[in-house]
């Protein structure tokens, strides 16, 4: 059921092409990840909307096969 | 509005601060829920919690209620605030403290 880090990154970049995505495999088990996503698409949006953009990019996997994804978002400096 | 949606609306509208979580504050059943509780305890506000593992309708219904795919979910004064990641970001930025202060939420002690 787990997803590879590269797959997560690819899905986010497909939806947010300018995104700088950093994926950390928190336990080295391919199942608990942290993702830091930096994209100009987040500018001016509240945090909930920023996270929803990333969840949408993951196409419904969040909360399903992708249970443990710690997410932080930011706008480029 | 479905019965489940109505039940959720009643819960968020009758509690100033409510966390939908897996397990209970004393025995969280998931790391993210555990983190959310730790933040709320640190804030020192009174809060209600709803254990979604005890109610499959709410467990599914809460996700469409907020259009948010994961649990835990925090609501303050009827408004969806976010999950544990957003709670942590807001807490570190001092925004969560400001939010509960502005909302006039009762402190825990």
Architecture overview:
Chain A is of the alpha+beta class and 77 residues long. Chain A has two helices and three strands. Chain A has a three-stranded mixed sheet. Chain B has a single domain (3-100), classed as Glutaredoxin (3-Layer(aba) Sandwich), CATH 3.40.30. Chain B contains five helices and four strands; from the N terminus they run H-E-H-E-H-E-E-H-H. Chain B has a four-stranded mixed sheet. In chain B, a hairpin with a 2-residue loop joins strand 3 and strand 4. In chain B, helix 1 packs across helix 3 (56-66) and helix 2 (31-43) runs parallel beside helix 4. Chain B is globular, with a radius of gyration of 13 Å. The A-B interface holds A 47-48, 51-52, 55, 60, 62-64, 68, 70-72 and B 31-32, 63, 67-71, 80-83, 85-86, 89-90.
Secondary-structure element pattern of chain B, one letter each: HEHEHEEHH
Report the CATH superfamily of chain A. Answer: BolA-like
Question: What is the CATH architecture annotation of chain A?
Answer: 2-Layer Sandwich
Largest interface: A-B, 13 and 16 residues
Shape of chain B: globular
The whole-number mean of residue pLDDT values of chain A reads 90
Low-confidence stretches of chain A: none
Estimated share of beta-strand residues of chain A: 25-35%
Structural class computed from helices and strand pairing of chain B: alpha+beta
Any guess at the CATH architecture of chain B? 3-Layer(aba) Sandwich
With helices defined by DSSP (H or I, 4 residues minimum), what is the helix count of chain B? 5
Backbone CA Rg of chain A: 12 Å
Subunit arrangement of the protein: heterodimer
Cα separation of the termini of chain B: 37 Å
Count the helices of chain A. How many? 2
> Regarding CATH, which class of chain B?
Alpha Beta
Structural class of chain A: alpha+beta
């Amino acid at each position: 059921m787990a997803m590879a880090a590269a797959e997560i990154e690819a899905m986010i970049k497909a939806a947010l092409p300018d995104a700088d995505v950093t994926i950390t495999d928190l336990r080295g088990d391919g199942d608990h990840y942290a993702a830091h996503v930096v994209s100009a698409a987040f500018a001016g949006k509240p945090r909930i909307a920023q996270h929803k953009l990333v969840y949408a990019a993951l196409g419904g996997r969040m909360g399903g096969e992708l249970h443990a994804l710690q997410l932080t978002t930011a706008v480029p400096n | 509005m479905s019965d489940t949606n109505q039940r959720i609306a009643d819960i968020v509208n009758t509690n100033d601060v409510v966390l939908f979580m897996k397990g209970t504050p004393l025995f969280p059943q998931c790391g993210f829920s555990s983190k959310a509780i730790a933040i709320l305890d640190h804030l020192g506000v009174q809060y209600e919690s709803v254990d979604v593992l005890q109610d499959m309708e709410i467990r599914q219904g809460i996700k469409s209620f907020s259009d948010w795919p994961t649990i835990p979910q925090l609501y303050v004064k009827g408004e969806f605030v976010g999950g544990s990641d957003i709670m942590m970001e807001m807490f570190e930025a001092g925004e969560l403290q400001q939010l509960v202060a502005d909302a006039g939420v009762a402190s825990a002690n």
